[in-house]
Design brief:
Elements lengths: L1 H6 L18 H13 L17 H9 L7 H11 L4 E5 L5 H15 L10 E4 L3 H14 L7 E4 L5 H7 L5 E4 L1 H10 L10 E5 L1 H4 L5 H10 L5 E6 L6 H6 L6 E5 L8 E7 L5 H11 L4 E5 L3 H14 L5 E4 L5 H13 L3 E5 L14 E4 L6 H8 L9 E7 L6 H7 L5 E2 L11 H10 L1 H19 L14 H7 L9 H13 L16 E2 L26 E2 L12 E2 L5 E2 L12 H8 L11 H11 L30 H6 L3 H52 L9 H5 L5 H6 L6 H8 L2 H18 L4 H12 L2 H15 L1
Parallel strand pairs: 1-6, 1-7, 2-4, 2-5, 3-4, 5-6, 8-13, 8-14, 9-11, 9-12, 10-11, 12-13
Antiparallel strand pairs: 15-16, 17-18
Helix pairs in contact: 4-5, 5-6, 8-10, 13-18, 17-18
Length: about 800
Amino acid sequence: MGKIEEKFKPKKKAKVKAFSKKPKGSEKLLIEQLESKYQTIDTTKITKFSELPLSQKTLKGLKECKYFKLTDIQRESISLALQGKDILGAAQTGSGKTLAFLIPILEVLFIKQWTRLDGVGAVVITPTRELAYQIFETLRKIGQHHDFSAGLIIGGKDLKFEQKRMDQCNIVICTPGRLLQHMDENPLFDCVKMQILVLDEADRCLDMGFKATMNAIIANLPLKRQTLLFSATQTKSVKDLARLSLKDPSYVSVHEASTPKELAQSYMVCELHEKISFVWSFIKAHLKMKIIIFFSTCKEVKYFFEIFSKLRPGVSLSALYGTLHQLRRMAIYEDFCRKKSAVMFATDLASRGLDFPEVHWVVQADCPEDVETYIHRVGRTARYYKGGKSLLLLMPTELKMLEYLSEKGISLEKKEMDVTKLVDPVRKMESFLSNDAELRATAQRACHHYARAMCFMKLKDVFQLQKLDLEKFAHSLGLKVAPRIRFLEKMNKKNGQNGKEAVSTPGMGNNKIYFKEEEMNQQSDCANVELSEQSGNSDDEKELRLEKHGNVASDCLFVEDGTLEIVAENKTVDPLTQEQMVEAAMPRSKKDKPLTKAAIAKKVLKQKIAVNKKIVFGDDGEPVGENVGVNKSTPENGIEAQLGLAVDQLLLALKEHDKTDRRVHQDKVKVKHKEKKKKLKNTNKKEEEEFEESEDEHQPDLSWLPDLDKVYGNQASDNESLNDHVELEPSMEEDINQSSDEKRNKMTKRKNTESKSGPKSKKVKKIKELSKVLDVNETEELALMLLKSKE
């Protein structure tokens, strides 16, 4: 038993110290040891993060996030950044550039023992909000064991919330516009002590779109700092590097400006109006995959997302573009990252730096503006040495882009389109657009913005707007009538004046109409202009272009017989009226535009042009007969008789019409005033009646009193009778003994009589006179009898 008891004896608890005392200077010794190892890093032998001289807090965060192996760009850039050098880092998409600058930020601030009281120590600038959000989330995970504070400063969020906390942030991840706003407006923001500046997607941050903003930001930053630039397509411009005041930067390039080897790249040739049916068929054929489809404009993305959502392809759809609210954009980004099969329509907003896990296909429905954009688009798939596929849709006029890609070492495999497998959803789209006016308006804006985007592309030999059939493209969007694109019409006018090729504008037709000049007699001061359906082609014809006025065609055709001909491409044109022809033939100025018949007649009179006058010339060149086959006009009637216009008579008639119109208008105004006065009178009467009724209601109800004429009889003089003793007549007793129904009838009659007579009735007068004459006892008896009669 003794041995058993010994086994179950309680053991003594080990002492645990709540606060372990660290030896003085231990942290400083660790920092010194780490700094001494920076200069001896051998990048050829290092393959893991644990082999780098990093703090334990950083290594623990990397281990928890399952980051173990180093990529090429990380191995080359981290060692140089820890040594305090400026870096220009260029690597293919999906190679881990984010960790290549986040780890040096944490280590530099840790070595310098940065605290929250020290303010901003590092600034990371990105071109898009989604990329800034992604970097912030990565920093929050790997730096969770550090004591630094980080802030996400992007547009679309609460500015006041950010302003109050800017002085507490050690690491600021931001977009250029919001950072400059804090520099200008927030007194708490101070970056005088800043140590590191990072530009992610540096070529985009330094281009023309952010030039003014970045110049203002750089002017406010301290000169003594470390600068890190990272991008898949790195800038080498001397001007850009001079703006950033880099000091002996180290250029780190790992497969610069090239796509991953695991990426299968292909292209397909199709017409502009065939793209929609191909995209729809492609989605239907890949329902269980994750796809990103890129378009050039926000309006296209919005329209295709809305119309394809109505068509219901059988897979989750989403759209990511710039005009969405920031919270909505972040929700779409996170939702797409979580799903295993989905389709996202996006602009180039999603092409820069965003990490979408396991994207199977990247389809570029619209050709990218340059090679750099192509590299960033296809980089959304085949990330971290995984496989992926990309498809580029090119029009026959855009095949020049393949040459630019081949110059950068990018080769694409050609694929043929199987027409038998295409499904055309245009009929269904037309039905949806006919029932929805808002959706139809978005389709029109999509067509307009696509044409505008093509107009402003840099590579003019690739994007040839004049060769596009925008009318067919509009019909492929589901529009029965193509929208009118005004800026193309203005371009056509300028190109016509400069002798350049015109662009076919939808909604206006492609009819070409020319003026052709014939030799006419200089002595004749008139010309016949008639419409004819015959077409004549002569070698001596000369083309003339006139300005367009109103609905009159801008170009016409004069043939040998002096008639006007309209030339169209297998289309009929409505004939012009006589007035339109006169208006078209007249020169116009911007200030003075004749719009009425009278103004046109005056212009013709000034120019001394005779209308409807025809002169036929013979073989000798002399006129044969005068005014043949035309209405003759005398000099007395002149142009007024020919046009059927009498200007003076028209002016008089117009004045008379104006007088009658004024009279009619005045009569209408008088009738309206009378109606208003009647309404006011009626309302005043109603208010008076209501006021009187309210006064009657406030007066005391005396209907229960008996009739004093019956009580006292008809007396000649009230004063004499009231001096004697007052005795009740038998009529009063009868009133008391009457039934309740009779009393009610009498009460209603008395109320009516009292309301008509007003407050000063006869009964009230008699009661007042009685109260003056009777004694106190008599009045008490009278009151008791009246109360009994009331009961």
